[in-house]
Design goal:
The complex is a heterodimer of chains A (378) and B (187).
Chain A (H helix, E strand, L loop, with lengths): L1 E9 L6 H9 L5 E4 L9 E4 L5 H9 L8 H17 L8 E6 L22 H11 L7 E3 L5 H14 L5 E8 L3 H9 L20 E2 L1 E9 L7 E10 L12 H10 L11 E3 L6 H13 L6 E3 L2 H4 L6 H14 L2 E2 L15 E2 L4 E2 L4 E8 L3 E9 L1
Parallel strand pairs in A: 3-7, 4-5, 4-6, 10-11, 10-15, 11-13
Antiparallel strand pairs in A: 1-8, 2-3, 6-8, 9-16, 12-14, 15-16
Helix pairs in contact in A: 1-10, 2-3, 5-10, 7-8
Chain B lengths: L5 E7 L4 E3 L2 E3 L7 H10 L11 H17 L10 E7 L4 H11 L9 H5 L5 H10 L5 E5 L5 H11 L7 E9 L5 E9 L1
Parallel strand pairs in B: 4-5, 4-6
Antiparallel strand pairs in B: 1-2, 1-7, 2-3, 6-7
Helix pairs in contact in B: 1-2, 2-5
Classes of the chains: A alpha/beta (378), B alpha/beta (187).
């Protein structure tokens, strides 16, 4: 069995899971409008760390003579806290590092960092810098599967642990925002000029966000209590590289796969959706959820708190859902107002109570990829 | 790579193309090889011309591999995964997108160019072409390592739906530096 033994969320809302959970329960968000940032021609709404916030906190928390990029500092802040809490030996050959990111150090293409080799723009080289920081000599794995990377990395981690080759997996999802990513999403006309409104009638696009989130999984022979990543699936729409399927094909198939015989839809507390607040994504998810027989199951989404944190999203949103269910809560979908999808879904617009201890994390991304993961607590 | 389970193999380098041990005649050099192969062996999929070099390389390698496999094509299926590995991710597309946006005065990023700054797009292109609804994933590591590849590929088969995978090393750092070593591996 594989169980979660520690986690951390490093985001503009806080530098621990506890701080993030508290902020989200209070309905807070760091989404705000940025005009003229990075000299971009159009304003955009995003959830970003404050200027120098990462550097300052890194300098006070992490003692090192090595030089790291801003992105690497985010990753290290998140991973260090989780590793400390877990008590694992991060340097052990029985520990593997698995990173989830879409663009990593891509900002090095625009601006060099003194003391940092240009080849750290390569995801594998960057990952090596991270694992070496913890004196781990295994080759770190980077999952770069667009916006579903965070769940894919957890699936890969679980498989690595099940193979018996490793005892612990440190899964870190992270992306920082940059002119590169913002202009790319602007080119798709996918960004909302205001705070995003997932699943709402008047939704008009997504907000971007930056964060790093870490889950540490451990292989154990006797699973007594705690959170377990029961089953994950990755499925493709086989439809379009930049638009979701009209039948929700990949998401539907991923959902069906993880809804195992042992789990009835009645047992599922909620589906934590991708909910980017683009017209197509949310509509597609409503179709997939309804086809999977989950129309009555509460659904919620966190993009209204964090924006779309890309490589971090699957890890961050899984952690937050687990934390909330620890307290018997289904978190609210910030930004939602009036339902605006064609298929029936039971969206949570305020915090709800539940006794159930099972949920599904759902994601979809460019390349037609979709992922679902079933989590359960004993 | 665990050759016992590999049923077909293709390698494409800047100078040669070899399918199941048999070299194909190619006259072009560099990434022109891709289009030479496309015209000779595919030629009915104009979307090919929109792809970046990573996608072109992965697409053409997979086409040749599937033709060699000789099974019925284009039937919807969920039992075949597509999982690639490389070192440079989508760096070639990243650099061209960056050169497009670095001058904010002439700032007109194109969505077609941006989408290829994700390495996994090639797996989506292959899934679309072949109606593969199964697992698609992209893994980046610092350098090629057979143990890592084998471990990840073994893991792909823990999905009960998956009975075969198109997988291997797919690197396209530039028009002159690329190599693909792709396999069909069965459970």
């Amino acid at each position: 069995m594989i169980r979660k033994i520690a986690d951390n969320i490093t985001s503009p809302l806080g530098f621990t899971t506890a701080d993030n959970y508290k902020a989200v329960c209070e309905g807070k968000s760091c989404l705000k409008i940025y005009e003229g940032k990075w000299k971009l021609p159009e304003p955009f709404v995003a959830s970003l760390f404050q200027d120098n916030q990462i550097g300052d906190i890194f300098a006070s928390e992490i003692h090192t003579d090595n030089i790291y990029t801003r992105f690497e500092k985010m990753v290290l802040l998140s991973a260090t806290k989780a590793i400390q809490d877990s008590g694992i030996d991060a340097s052990s050959e029985r520990t593997i590092f698995i990173l989830s990111t879409t663009k990593g150090n891509v900002s090095l293409l625009e601006r060099n960092v003194r003391g940092v080799d240009d080849d750290r723009v390569l995801l594998g080289v960057m990952a090596n810098v991270i694992s070496r920081h913890f004196n781990n000599t295994n080759i770190p794995i980077v999952v770069s599967n667009a916006c579903i990377s965070g769940v894919c990395a957890q699936i890969v981690a679980n498989r690595c642990l099940e193979s018996g080759k490793y005892d612990n997996a440190v899964v870190i999802g992270a992306d920082e925002q940059s002119p590169f990513i913002v202009s790319g999403f602007q080119s798709f006309r996918a960004l909302s000029p205001e705070e995003c409104r997932p699943f709402s009638k008047n939704r008009n696009g997504l907000n971007l966000g930056e964060a790093a989130a870490t889950i540490i999984y451990q292989h154990c022979d006797n699973f007594i209590d705690g959170w377990q990543a029961v089953k994950g699936a990755i499925r493709n729409d086989a439809n379009h590289i930049s638009g979701p399927s009209r039948t929700g094909e990949g998401s539907y198939r991923a959902l069906k796969y993880v809804m195992t015989d042992e789990v009835a839809s009645d047992d599922i507390a909620c589906v934590n959706v991708h909910g980017t607040a683009t017209a197509y994504n949310d509509e597609m998810e409503s179709i997939a959820i309804s086809r999977a027989g989950l129309s009555d199951t509460p659904i919620n989404g966190y993009k209204g708190y964090y924006g779309h944190t890309m490589g971090a999203a699957g890890v961050l949103e899984s952690i937050l859902s687990m934390r909330a269910l620890d307290d018997g809560l289904i978190l609210a979908t910030r930004g939602f107002d009036e339902i605006g999808v064609t298929h029936p879904v039971n969206i949570s617009n305020k915090i709800r109570h539940t006794d159930k201890k099972t949920f599904i994390k759902l994601l979809s991304g460019f390349g037609g990829c979709n992922a679902a993961m079933l989590f359960s607590k004993r | 790579m665990n050759m016992k389970k590999a049923v077909h193999k293709i390698t494409i380098t800047t100078t040669e193309v070899v399918v199941d041990g048999k070299p194909l005649d190619v006259t072009c050099l560099g990434s022109n090889i891709f289009t030479e192969l496309y015209r000779k062996y595919v030629n009915d999929y104009p979307k090919y011309f929109k792809m970046d070099i990573l996608c072109k390389l992965g697409f053409i390698a997979t086409e040749l591999l599937l033709q060699t496999e000789g099974k019925v094509r284009f039937e919807p299926c969920e039992d075949r995964a597509v999982v690639f590995f490389n070192r440079s991710s989508s760096l070639h597309a990243d650099k061209s997108f960056e050169s497009n946006i670095c001058n904010r005065e002439s700032f007109y990023p194109s969505p077609a160019m941006f989408v290829y700054t994700l390495p996994n797009i090639v797996t989506g292109e292959i899934a679309i072409r072949n109606k593969y609804y199964g697992e698609t994933n992209f893994i980046v590591i610092e350098k090629r390592d057979e143990d890592v590849l084998e471990n990840i590929i073994d893991g792909v088969f823990t999905d009960n739906m998956t009975t075969s995978v198109v997988t291997g090393w797919l690197e396209a750092e530039s028009e002159e530096e690329f190599n693909a070593e792709i396999y069909i591996i069965e459970k």
